[in-house]
């Protein structure tokens, strides 16, 4: 089977990028013929962001790549923002089955995390257009950018772009439940739950030191790091943190 994986890399490497690498490696190990088509948000940021509703260059690049590789199935990860929904239209026009992993909540809210100013933000789940999100500037604390991201998502939602996706993958049952309670509840029948994975470590190779708890991921507010640090502050247990991000100084200070 020939599998084409499509992914847009963020400016800073994160968990989604690692997942793409791991899954491509696994598919190849299982005898699949895999090719990776990538886009990048690095460079010409403003131009790429302005083309968020439809990046013609990304459309042509995807169309040409698909025509040359002739995959049996296409697995899309991140399209924000350089890839844009234009990639979905290119795949749809080629008639190839589409699987898409939803690594975040971007199709539901421009915040992508359902988190804003240290609190849950669920106002966009049922809203026809996320005006409250725009007023609060939930995307990069900018009302203008939030409106632009919201408008792009709204237009493609009205054009029924998600109908082109044959199967959605989410990372947990809570995500499927949230989508089922949202304005996109019609997608639920095409959603399966598949958690991320990592390669196992042979027992003989594991550290011989005392038992500890491990956090691996981006050091950001929405990950709940402040709660984690507070919980381990005086409980006598060992916590190890691996990652980088805006809260790196907080983590180092807590040590």
State the share of residues found in helices, binned by percent. 25-40%
The topology string of helices and strands comes to: EHEHHEHEEEHHEHEEHEH
Instruction: Count the beta strands.
Output: 10
Oligomer: single chain
Percentage beta strand: 15-25%
Mean pLDDT: 93
Structural class: alpha/beta
| CA-CA gap between termini | 49 Å
Radius of gyration: 20 Å
Query: What profile does the largest beta sheet have?
Result: 6 strands, parallel
User: Unreliable segments (pLDDT under 50, ≥5 consecutive)?
Assistant: none
Strand order of the largest sheet: 2-1-3-4-7-8
The number of helical elements comes to: 9
Shape: globular
What's the short version?
Helices cover 35% and strands 17% of the residues. By secondary structure, it is an alpha/beta fold.
In words, what does this structure look like?
- The protein is α/β, with parallel strands linked by helices and 255 residues long.
- Helix content is 35%, strand content 17%.
- The chain has 9 helices and 10 strands.
- It has helices at residues 15-29, 45-50, 56-69, 86-94, 131-136, 143-158, 173-180, 225-232, 248-254, and strands at residues 2-9, 33-40, 73-76, 98-102, 115-116, 119-120, 167-170, 191-193, 213-216, 239-242.
- The strands form 3 sheets. A 6-stranded parallel sheet has the order 2-1-3-4-7-8, with helices on both faces. Strands 5-6 form a two-stranded antiparallel ribbon. The chain has a two-stranded parallel ribbon with strand order 9-10.
- β7 (167-170), α7 (173-180) and β8 form a beta-alpha-beta unit.
- α3 (56-69) packs parallel to α4 (86-94).
- The protein starts with a strand and ends with a helix.
